[in-house]
Every structure is written in C-alpha cells, then in structure tokens.
Amino acid sequence: MSTKLIGTGVALVTPFHTDGSIDFKSYKKLINNLITNKVDYVVPMGTTGESVTLTKDEKQAIFDITLETVDGRVPVVAGIGSNNTRELCDYLNHFDKKGFTAILSVAPYYNKPNQEGLYQHYGMVAEHSPLPVILYNVPGRTGSNMTAETTLRLANDFKNIIAVKEASGNIDQMMYILKHKPKNFMLISGDDGITLPLIALGASGVISVVGNAWPKDFAQMTRYALAGDFDKARKLHYKLTDIINLLFADGSPGGIKAVLKMKGICGDTVRLPLSAPSEAVVKKLMAAVDNY
User: Fold this and answer.
1) Mean pLDDT on 235-258
2) Is position 60 within any domain?
3) Could you tell me if residue 168 is inside a domain?
4) What span, in angstroms and rounded, lies between the C-alpha atoms of 193 and 210?
C-alpha cells in the first residue's frame, strides 16, 4: 500500500466560477494535466481544496468527479478530516471506499487538543476508517502541534495508520520521526520548499501545492531526489523556490489559483473567508510565471 504513495501527490485546488459554484470542467482539466505530467497521485478535498467551505454534497460531488476523471490512472487519496471526532467517525462508517487508496485526515483544528486528545482522536479515526490513514500535522492552521512522540505512538499502535503528512516546519521533529518510525511508516512532506532536504533525510515524497501549476518539474525534482540524484534535483528545487514562497505570501490557495488562471487552467475565485492575493503579490507572481 505505502509504495503507491511514494513520490509526488498533489493537493488539488477546487476551481470555482465567479459566482462561487464549482467549476467541474476546469477541475477535470486540472486533473488530466497533472496525470499527463506524471504526478504520482492526487488528493481531493485537502486544505488547498478549500474543503472547509464546501457542503457535504459538494464534497461528495468532488470525490465522484475525481474518481471518474482519474479512471484508475493514479491513486486517489481522499481528504477527510474534522474537529468533531464523533461526526467524523460516523462519516467514515458510511464512506464508500471504492476507488480510493487512503484518506488524509487533518489534525483537529480550533479545539487545540493536548497530545492525548490527538492520540485518542486519531485512534478513533483508525478504528472507523475503511481505508489506510495518513495523519496530517499542520500546526500553522490547526493551532496545535502533534509531537513526534504522538506520531510514533500512533504509527506503532495502529497498523492502518501508514504515514504522516508533516507541515510543522520543524526539521528536528521530522528527523526524530524518520529515525524512530516503524519500517513501513512514511513521512510525507507537507511543505513544497523543504521537500528536497526531507527526502535526503528519508521522507517518501510530498503532497504538493505548487504541483497544481508545475506538475512536470516538481514531480521530476521529487523523482530525482528519491533516486539520490541530488545535483539534478537541486536545479529544479532552486528553479521553483521563489515561486513557492510567493504562492503563500498572501494566503493559500489564492496564490496557486492566481497562477492557474495565468496558465489558463482555471479561474482564481476563492470562497470567503478567503480572498484573492493583493495586487502587488499577483504582479510578482505574473513576473515569476513569465520568467520561469
């Protein structure tokens, strides 16, 4: 199972029309472009997909159109998370797993649980999930960091918890996980900009934002790094670094959607409470795209 998720996964944006409705035509165009450019798997309804602003029916529609468009060509990881453990487990009890490889479940946000709360939450998710589980630690969004000790405890106690997407930015924490993890447990980069060094330390790949717009180069950079060809990987890494930083300069996924609009893949509309990046950031992104 874990070998299917080595390499570059892309956290898919959800394109919207200017009225805020989902633009399914552009969404299919995005997915086909990613597969053509050899990403390894796709992740609908993650943070980049603005999942917290979609209704239950809209999320299901996104899952359905993703499976239909992918048509078995690459694995699909479903973003399914909540800060209400009971509600999440009830959803998982009824989730149709057909066509999916795993779920990516973000740590509870806003509640700010302690480490025991995080452990108990994910333990319940593991017990109720019909699919292998990827933990998602992103303290900049959730308000609480899942420590290396808690991640390793979960990795050792639940066989269907197969990986963690680590977006804490704490290299020491990630190295501790990599050093002490069970053999088949994966650490997946949650930050595009540090994917290369994390792979050098033993990470299995990335779930990417920039890959929405530059799938070919970012996936190739990841492949080079995983193969140990760091000279070639570094060239692509530094080619993308400034753009990656700009994508997050004024909120995400506003930045990546602005670029996707420039590339003619989808519009740049985001749903409130998000708003478009500032004019100054968009100008810098336009220059970066022109100069790439």
Assistant:
1) 96
2) yes
3) yes
4) 9
